[in-house]
Amino acid sequence: MALPILTVVCALGKQGRGVISAFLEDKAQLKVHIRALTSNPSSSSAQELAKNPNVSVVQVDLASLESTESAFQGSTYIFANTSFDGATLMAKGAKATEELESIHKLNITRAASRITTLKHLVWSTLPDAKEASGGKYYIPHFQSKPAGDRLVLDAESGLSDKTTFLRIGMYGSNLLRDPHTPIYSADMNTHTVQYPIRPDVKFGFIGDEVINTGIYVRAILEQPEKTIGRVLEGVADTLSCTEWAAIFQKVQDKLGSGSKVSFKECSLKEYEEKWGEMGTEVGRMMTYFNEFGERSFTISTWGWPIVTAKDLGIKHDLRSTEETLLGLEWPTHD
């Protein structure tokens, strides 16, 4: 008897890879065949994935409704994640990048609504910060998602009674990438984590964005009675930027760098001047966190209940931000 199909959108990204790994593990209770969707099936990572007999790698163009619907045919489960493409952001700006991701999310929703075999859609998304703040905060990589969310909620789509919204918290590993990279002073041998947010404000972190996303999605699909029609807060721990910097201090201690790490609050203008367009994008997000704190990922849920890792019995399975950062490869300064 053929296994049910779990289709994973953006299968080669961090979240997609985590979902695939979680369902290939022996301890997965729900046995599925994985259909891994990618725009580039000839890449080395796609070809390596295709070696697994329980994985089919399929090409998809998310900008095409026809291509997306074809890739979804026969799916019992779909994990849908989209990306706010950094290359498009730098080449064409935030508005064009937002519009591109919105198109992808709308096509995924429309295509999923036409799949008669679909039982459960797991929709990786973020809050509508603009709506939640009464228009005060406009964050393009947040605002690229609500159009797809609203279409899921529309009764005509037939998806609201098949869907779980998963809101993934901040990636702790962002400190490896600009504009999050701590500012290094060679003269002082110091690292400064700098954002436009107060040092004591706490907000949600996913921990290990690959492993933990897989744990979350597996729990969602294995416990539909607890997750359909709900918003799952994808958070492993809640930290302030001061605490995040303290973890990075442990990284430096492990490296034996002798560097001292601190957190410094700056203004949004200062952050934008240093990092340009990416600084505007991330800086706006941090000012939103500055106001909403621990509620940042759980507001504006359209009346749907919030579910947590504790509710699903997976809290102790998650890898913390500290464990994650200490296990990564970090650049060193000569």
Q: Would you summarize the structure shown here?
A:
With 334 residues, the protein is α/β, with parallel strands linked by helices.
Mean pLDDT: 95
How many strand elements?
Answer: 14
Order of helices and strands: EHEHEHEHHEHHHEEEEEHHEEHEHEH
The fold-level CATH name is: Rossmann fold
Give the uncertain stretches in residue-range form. Answer: none
Name the CATH superfamily classification: NAD(P)-binding Rossmann-like Domain
Tally of discrete structural domains = 1
Binned strand content: 15-25%
Could you give a short account of the major beta sheet?
A: 8 strands, parallel
**SS-based class:** alpha/beta
Count of separate DSSP helical elements:
13
Spatial extent as radius of gyration: 20 Å
Which percent bin holds the helix content?
A: 25-40%
What is the 3D form? globular
The termini sit apart by: 59 Å
The top-level CATH class is: Alpha Beta
Adjacency order of strands in the biggest sheet: 3-2-1-4-5-6-11-14
What CATH architecture would you give? 3-Layer(aba) Sandwich
Written description of the protein model:
- It is a single chain.
- The protein has one domain (5-326): Rossmann fold.
- It has 13 helices and 14 strands.
- The protein has helices at residues 14-24, 44-50, 65-72, 86-92, 94-113, 129-132, 140-143, 146-153, 211-222, 224-227, 241-255, 268-292, 321-326; strands spanning 5-8, 33-38, 55-59, 77-80, 120-125, 163-168, 170-171, 183-185, 190-195, 202-207, 230-234, 237-240, 260-265, 306-307.
- The protein has an eight-stranded parallel β-sheet, with helices on both faces. It has a three-stranded mixed β-sheet with strand order 7-10-12.
- Helix 1 crosses helix 9 (211-222), helix 3 packs across helix 5 (94-113) and helix 5 (94-113) runs parallel beside helix 8 (146-153).
- The model has no long low-confidence stretch (mean pLDDT 95).
- InterPro entries: NAD(P)-bd_dom_sf, NmrA-like, NmrA-like_oxidored.
- Residues 6-295 form the NmrA-like domain.
- Belongs to the NmrA-type oxidoreductase family.
